[in-house]
Amino acid sequence: MGALVVKELGPLLRRRDFLVRSGLVVGASALAGTGGWVAGKELAEDGETARAEASLGAGGMQGEFALDRGVVQLTSFLLAPHPRQVREAIEQHRRELDANPKGYLFARELELEQAVLEAASSYLGARAEDIALTDSTTMGLGLVYGTLALGPGDEILTTEHDHYATHETLRLRSERTGATVRRVALYRDIASVSVDEIVESLRGSITPRTRAVAVTWVHSSTGLKLPVRAIRDALPDHVLLCVDGVHGLGVEDVEVGELGCDVFVSGCHKWLFGPRGTGIVWASGRAWEEVAAVIPTFDGRGYGAWIQGREPDDLPPAAALTPGGFHSFEHRWALADAFRWHADLGRERVAEHTHGLATALKDGLADIPGVTVITPRAERLSAGIVCCDLGGDPHESVGRLEAEHEVIASVTPYATEYVRFGPSIANTGEDVERALAAVRAIAG
Ligand SMILES: Cc1ncc(COP(=O)(O)O)c(C=O)c1O
Q: Which domain holds residue 22?
C-alpha cells in the first residue's frame, strides 16, 4: 500500500484492517483463525521462532522488502533496506523534486518536515518540538557531545563498550575544553553480567565533577542492552544521562520518556528501517538547556531573524540544533513513513518478533559445539543483535558463511571481534534456521 494512500486514508483505516488487507497478518491469522496475532501468540508454544512468527505472521515483513531472496540478510543493524512504504514515499518525493525542485520545495517543505516531526513524536511518545532531525547517529552524537557546556574541571563518564562515534566525539570535545573523559567497564565477565553490576559500575564511578554519562543502549560490540531506567534512577539528578539508542529504536517496545535518559540520539536507518541518511536527537526540557547549536538551522524562525538583522528569540532548542543547509529531502521527508509504518505494525509486535528470532538464534547457536554465544540470553539485557565466537578468525567465518552458505553476517568493528547477526522484522524463522545450519557446517 502506497505511502500517499495510507496518508489519505490514515484516519479511516483501523490498524487491524490495514494489516489484514496488506497481508501482514496472514501467517498469524492462518495459525489462529479469526483471533489474529494475540491468539496466535498464545498457540505458539513450540519455541521462540513460533513466538516470532505469531507476532508478525510466518513471513514477518519479508514481503515488504526488496532484498535478494537468494541470500539470508542478517545485517539490518548496519544499514537498513527500505520497506515498500518508505521506497514509495522516497520515489514520490524524488519525482516531484526532479519535476520542479523549487516549486515542490517551497510548496511542501514546511508541511513535510512537520509531518516527519509529528510521526516521530507519535512513535516516540515525545513532543514534536523536542525532536531535532539529523543525518545519522554519528551526526547527532557530534552535535550533542560537541556542544555540551563543559569546562576544564568537568568530566564525562563513558564506558569501554561504546562505539567509535561516542568515544571519538568525546575525545575531540575534551581536546577543545580540557574536560576529562573517563571510561569504565560495566561488567567483569559478560557471561555473568547483571542489571545490578551495570548500575553499580556507573554509580560507583560518579564523582562531584561528573557532568554527563555517555552510554549506548544496545552495544554493537556484544549485543548487551543496558537497563537505562535503572541507571537513571541510580544517578544524581544533576548528571545528564545521554544515550546512543540506535540499536534499540525500532526494536524495543518503549517510549523515549519511559526509557529514562535525558538525551536520546539515534540514526533511523538501522532497525527502524527509515531512509538511509536520517536520524534524530531527543532531549528532555532540562537537557536542552545544556546543548547548543553549531550548524545554522534553516528553520524560518532562525533564518527570518537573520534577515531582520536580529538574533532569533523564539527558536526552540531542537529546531536550533537541526542542521540547516539543503538535504536529500526525498529521504528526510520519507522518514515520516518509516515511523508510521512501525506505528502501524505496533511496537509490541515488532519487539516480539525481533526478540523471538534473536532468542531462537542464541539458543540454536548455544547448542553447536565450539560456539560461544556472547550476547546475554535474558531479554532485559539483550535486543536484536546476536554476537558469538565461532572459535576461529571471525572474518574468515563471516566470509565462509557468505561464500559457502549465502548467509550475510558481519564482524563487530571493535578491538575484540565477534561474529554478529541481527535478525529483524525483515527476517523469518526460516532465515534463522538457515543461519544455524550454516554455522553448524562451518563450525564442524
Ligand atoms: C552503537 C553505534 N552507534 C553509532 C553507530 C553509527 O551509526 P550512524 O551510521 O547512524 O552514524 C553505529 C554503527 O554503525 C553503532 O553500532
A: 3-73+347-443
